[in-house]
Structure prediction request, 842 residues.
Amino acid sequence: MKQALLLTQFILINLFLYAQNEPVKKLKLTGIVSDSAGKPAASATVEAATGDFKKTGVANAEGKFSIDELPFSKEYTITVTSIGYKNSIQKIVLNAADNAAAVKDIGHITLIAEANTLANVVVTASAAPAMQFGIDRKIFNVEKNITAQGGTAVDVMKNIPSLSVDVNGNVELRNAAPQIFVDGRPTILTLDQIPADDIEKVELITNPSAKYDASSSSGIINIVMKKNKRTGLNGIASVGVGSPQLFNGNLSLNLRQKNFNFFVNGNYNTAGGKAKEETYRQNKNNDTITDYFYQHSINKPGREFYSLRFGMDYFIDNNNTLTFTQSFNTGSNENTETQNQQYLDKYETLNYTGLRTTAGTGNFNRTGSRLSFESKFNRPDHTLTADITYNDGSRDNASNILNTFSYPDGTMYLPDSRVRNNGTADNYQVIGQVDYSNKINDNKRIELGLRTFYNKNSSTFATYTIDGSDNETKLPLSNNYKYTETVNAAYFNYANKWKSITYQVGLRTEFSKFDGLLIDSNYHFGYKFPDGFKDLGYVLFPSVFLTKPIGENNELQLNYSKRIRRPRFWEVNPFVDINDPMNITVGNPALKPEYINVFELNYFNRFKNNGGSFLAVLYLQNNVGDITQYSDTITDALFQQLNNAAISPDAIVNTFINAGYTNRMGAEFTLQKKLWKNFDLTYNINLQYRVTKADVKGLDLDNSGFNYETKLIANYKIETEKSKLFNNLGFQLIADYESASVIPQGKTKPQFVSDFAMRKEFLKKKAASLSFSINDIFNSRKFGTIYDTDEFYQDSYRRWNVRSFRLTFSYKFGDNTLALFKKKSNNNNEEDEGRAGVPDTN
Prediction:
């Protein structure tokens, strides 16, 4: 604790020194330009003149401008020009206090339209491309992804290069699980609880710097939610229907007036379907087959989700913003599963059959609150941000399981077995973070910050067997637990330039603690790092980035970072999951965190004339103590404990272990090419060789092998004046193939998935659109594994979602003249709104 306090004091002292003692040499003028309706005057030219000295700046898309490196003077003449507007000329007078501050906010400048030219002016907005490259990240514009419209964040992730999504909606980046953020902070929401229509963009960071959580061992996926800041009232409404049992509705509203911005998003989403699963098993003894097992399952899942997110920005002045955001997510799901089982002898002669039916229901509630503050000091690249986030959630579930066993002639093999489950859980998180960034000059920049994370979870789960008289007996696998997780962190980054090489070095430290308790047995489990000085090296996480330009449009970057992956709760929780009587799962409370060293060599080429870009990456990821799945046949002791739950004596127990290490070596190539005006392709391929070293009680689990994943995204849009029907009609096709990949005791099976969508835009200014999508064209999205050990061979596949069809209608609307805080007009019939220096755009 003493070391943490000293580190905190050091960071705060540095923050104060950089913020207060920066040399003052020149003056900087800032402000905002808009038209009389409050709409930002993007690209307006602003000139500041004093004596013979003149310097100009250009307003950005939000109307903001800044002109720096000005000599001190008592008076400046400000001239603003923009196509279609009268020139604005005004004088400003500065006093001694303004010069001492080194920055002067001249407030809001309103332009008046020229009546004789306005009718001839046509303003067009250039939409963001579907994908943008950066050396450290890729940014994906979700609006361009029409195959995900009306779906969830899971559908969005399926269509992003470098990512793969398994049958349960878990996302992987280069065959490892990344950390999921929403608006830059951790979330308790699952991906299927986030509506796709509420997402603005997705940022993919493959090798985060010391600024980001050290637990982002396999990269970060940051989901940026929509928040419109256009002046007046704006919104978008959408509704969609489809098969199987699909329905969605979404409404987003934004009201921007003066220094307030209000936003709200509401979403409703339902889905259903019927999915199949299959398992083929050979049980062995000394490599000799002893018997066979077949299982065929049909799942009928259904879900109904609601979400509401609203908030407000308060623009205190041009440089300071206070934001509050609140979200509510709630929903329910149900699932009916039927398992048909066949038990055969070593000659594949049927001994008996089993029928297992499960009816389950569940409900969840999630809330999230965030209060954020941003200050930009005397320029946009000198900032201090602080926020506090509170997430709260609860869930409950219940299920009834019936097992029947029969001989081939239909007579009873074993008495029927009935099991009832029910459980509840509560979870809340508190996250506080402060970040400071100062770009001292064109090359030199510092970043530092503090973060604290607290997570508390409690759960009650009970399992009962029911006899023929409806008497219930509580099974030992019932589980009541609670745990708390705490992570306190601090980081420092320093960037500068040496000759033609730009470099950034950083260091992060994190102190973490996990306390788990099985309440019924008073069994404690968990970990603490560091646990004494011997572990101090395990809580330091350095990062290094070196970037060198090669020619006009090419860059080369070498980077390294050290990260950590802490065990997830279900991996350390010793609870036994018996949903599948032949494949049960149990956590390992002895798990320890794994440590990851990541190296990347990036080559990035921006093609001329906006013709696309190319990114090539060579990478090595070394996971020490890799947390990986391990499977074995059930022990006699565990079988006796679960005997009343109709568990097979040949069941496989899946758990987790710390492997010696896993190395992932690979090369990834992404090409984005615009073939002609309205047709573009994005192609990604990831080639990887994986080596796993693991040993369990003398059993050698080493494995190695090559795998690859390739994805193609094609977009085409018809633009023609000859046909109103086909004009503004867009098409999107996505195809993804994943090869088999090794796991410690076998391999995953290959899979191919393809999605298609088309969208027609119509009405004035393309305000309305109608889209049709097919997800999983060939109904082939399923996750399969093959285990091959001395005790058993198992080939199985699972799936949750099935092929779906969806039709979605969207309508955009807005009125930028709507004013809630309109002031009375002055003698010149001009509004004084915003003339006191308070902006109405951000």
